[in-house]
Amino acid sequence: MLGALVISLGWIVAASSSGAGQTSGATPASESTLNGVSCVSANTCTAVGYLGDDTLIEFWDGDSWSVVPSPDRGTTDTLEAVSCVSVNTCEAVGSYTNPSGERTLAESWNGTSWSVVPSPDRGASSALEAVSCVSVNTCEAVGSYLNASGSQALAESWNGSDWSVAASVSLLTPAGAVNGLTCVSDNLCVAVGNHGSGTLVEFWNGTGWRFVVSPNPGNYSGLSGVSCSSDRSCVAVGNYSYGTGSAASTLSRTLIESWNGTAWAVVPGPGPSVAYLYGVSCVSARSCKAVGDYRISSGLRRALVESWNGTSWSVVPGPSPSAGYLYGVSCVSVRSCEAVGESANVTGTVQALVESWNGRVWSI
To answer: Quick one: CA dihedral 140, 225, 108, 164, positive or negative?
Structure first.
């Protein structure tokens, strides 16, 4: 898919078993992954991803997760992100493939069923990686497309009935990929990703996108997720490495950056020496959760959760076993978060993973 981090992942997951509680509703025998989640209350969440070659959408009702039927368009379909403004209104985005290549995929929830909504494509290959809605009539989606010059940033807008390529999209910095997005209002959205070997941050003002300078630690860095609790408080997460060619130098480290209304700055974090952060959710300037994965001594990867208390970031212990990757997180309060991703069972089958935060501990 398009819009991957600058530094590629080694695809290894540790075996995990699911205990009682919020296990994914995906069929255990099928390969499945959840890439994104959106909660409108502690009892109402929607998560999206893929099951085999098809889209996967799951719904949390406060007691259990269940699979909701979702449409497909191509031979391979996947959903990367979802944004819900109510129990009856959600928009999900991703991509599908057909004989002519990869194309954008957008689906809409009306409270009863999911349906495919036409979305524009650009270049030889297009994909949407993130979406954020502030009302039933206002959403923004971002991703990337390929042309002769390489990967280019892509932005699209939803007006309640149609998706269109965002006005002034040419202001988006070229030769990059946009991986994360959050909208505070209909005239303020923040998109993050990578441009060349550095981070990329763009701001939407309701009519067009503008580039905003962001720090670039190491020799290679990229941002994959962002969350804003106000126009003066945003947190973006990703990874960086020194990448000089030696094996030790290319090991990825977690990257956290914050926006104070004026400038972006790197925030020290406690991430393990080889780790990634993919998603973040902030309910206030003093409460954020970020998720990803880290590598243990055996070379396997385990889920990583970090927490911000307004002063510092700390690693939060996860359930045992805590294995695999967490790609997305959605918090509705300091006591209620859902994180999604993937793990592997004892036979090696990749399964959708859901972890829940109750204000004290994470549990599966």
So the answer is: positive
